[in-house]
Amino acid sequence: MDINEKFAYMATGQPYNDLDVELVALRDAATVKTNALNATDDVDEKARLFQALVGKTGPRPFVNPSFRVEFGRNIQVGADFYANYDCTLLDGAPITIGDHVLFGPKVGLYTSNHLFDATERELGGCIAKPITIGSRCWLAASVTVLPGVTIGDNTIIGAGSVVTHDIAANVIAAGNPCQVIRPITAADQTGFDGQQFKLNH
């Protein structure tokens, strides 16, 4: 089984060997790439290195250090992706992120999980399920997203939340486990028009 077949198999949610030598080598390669990404302050170079790291990206990605991935190749992001400090994306299965998505500090998306049986876990047994984040979402500081979760467009996930199940579009959700608090409505608009430090008189 070649590496593409292995990743296709992993994406089905069936148990796989996390200690497979090819997977270990790819994790090591991703660490080298993220080390280079985290070391540069040049915006254009950062975008180039990010593009070389992930499977697909839209224009103008920006990630602060220390950004980490498991493999990188299973990550797809849209336009204007922004990740604040200490973001971790474990992409044993595909991670798909829409356009104009904001991640606060210490956001973690984890597609993989160790098997529950101790003997199987010792042998490297894992499963992975895809994660999807819709467009224009904001995941605030220290949000954790677990395997198999989809978050709909425009949704905000509050700081410290652990997202264990799908969250609908156009809502504010928070907690552990994360639950919908309320919809986002026109009452949330402030009149901000993109002008910085505009004074109202």
Automatic annotation (TrEMBL):
It comes from the Bacteria. Keywords: Acyltransferase, Repeat, Transferase. It holds the Pfam family Hexapep. GO terms for molecular function: galactoside O-acetyltransferase activity. Gene3D superfamilies: Hexapeptide repeat proteins. Residues 7-59 form the Maltose/galactoside acetyltransferase domain. Its EC number is 2.3.1.-. The keyword Repeat applies. The keyword Transferase applies. It is an enzyme of class 2 (transferase). Belongs to the transferase hexapeptide repeat family. This is Acetyltransferase. The lineage of its organism: Bacteria, Bacillati, Bacillota, Bacilli, Lactobacillales.
